[in-house]
């Protein structure tokens, strides 16, 4: 295997060692599927992005994403990491169309006073039927929640903007951070519920909080017990909030800040923008910043 440039990027943060670490290979030409999977496994991040040449005229780059165990269709924080790394290598600001396993996404990179900002236009939101009550009870048992700790203002529901997650709204931020799920039981629910990720979040905010929401995301079925910050969870959550009337939204675009951290205390933030038409969410974008961890060649 020819030498490849590998970056570790801390995405969705402005502080090194915070946010969500992603691996990035900025030129993955010549790597086989097995080699990409081996690099992702060795790095051990929740996802590693591999940037490849375009395969057609409808996109500018092709990006593939691997967790330590499987390829996934798309990943928000690794997309931020990939475009941040391309900017560090001298890529010009502007919009690139990236082909992923979830289709073609427009990704804008721009510079402001705070540094590089990456804006990802996700797919149009899709909503599954709310989870049946018996499945909700299995889920709350696996999470270690009492049923009445769920937020009754909206349903437990799978929402996707490309690589969806199950939305699990709860009442209390204190309970959110105290959660200690049974990961084996949670992973065993994947096939019955139809999800590979469980996003538990709350609108419980304190005075002066800059964020509208706080969340945690668990995906033990794909080798990620807990993700520090997840673009493909917070984006769909924005659509969910509009859909169920929990985010004041008129036609146009509504924006808010979302924060997420894991049980060990590592986390970060992103800004979520939901486009609204006739009171319904029709498009979602997320914006994130990043910090260089390190770069190696191997």
Automatic annotation (TrEMBL):
Q: In which domain of life is the source organism classified?
A: Bacteria
Q: Which Pfam families match?
A: PhzC-PhzF
Q: InterPro entries of this UniProt entry?
A: Phenazine_PhzF-like
GO-annotated molecular function: isomerase activity
- Keyword Ligase in the entry? The reply is no
> What range does the record give for the signal peptide?
none
Identify the keywords attached in UniProt to this record, alphabetized. Isomerase
Q: Which NCBIfam families match?
A: PhzF_family
Q: Which protein family is it in?
A: Belongs to the PhzF family.
Protein name (Swiss-Prot/TrEMBL): PhzF family phenazine biosynthesis isomerase
According to its UniProt entry, this protein's organism is Lysobacter arvi
